[in-house]
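Work Package 3 (structural annotation) set out to generate three-dimensional models for the target panel prioritized at the project kickoff. During this period the team completed the workflow that converts sequence records into discrete structure tokens, so that structures can be stored uniformly alongside our sequence database. As a representative example, we reproduce one entry of 102 residues exactly as it appears in the project archive.
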Amino acid sequence: MTQTVHLPRVAWDGARAFVQAAGSPRSEQFAALVLSRLGSEAYGQFADTRQRLLTALVETGGDRYAADVEAGKWRVRLEDLLRRKPQLTATVLDLTGEAFEL
């Protein structure tokens, strides 16, 4: 049986998970997974997301706006990545599951 994958949904779920992981105390563990599975560009973007979330937390006391903006950025990044390299779909799905477990 063939399974249909809806790339925009994979990207959206991944974006939410990546941002959640970036705000997690175990973000460094997840960052290492991003580096090993998606490469240095995604790793750098993840580090930037974490920094922006921490800065927003200090400045606003926890306003969701920063997390929502970061999730939007990650949705676009991941969807673009999956359109260019659909073979990474399983990797993004795995990372999404691991991020939600943090």
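The radius of gyration is 13 Å.
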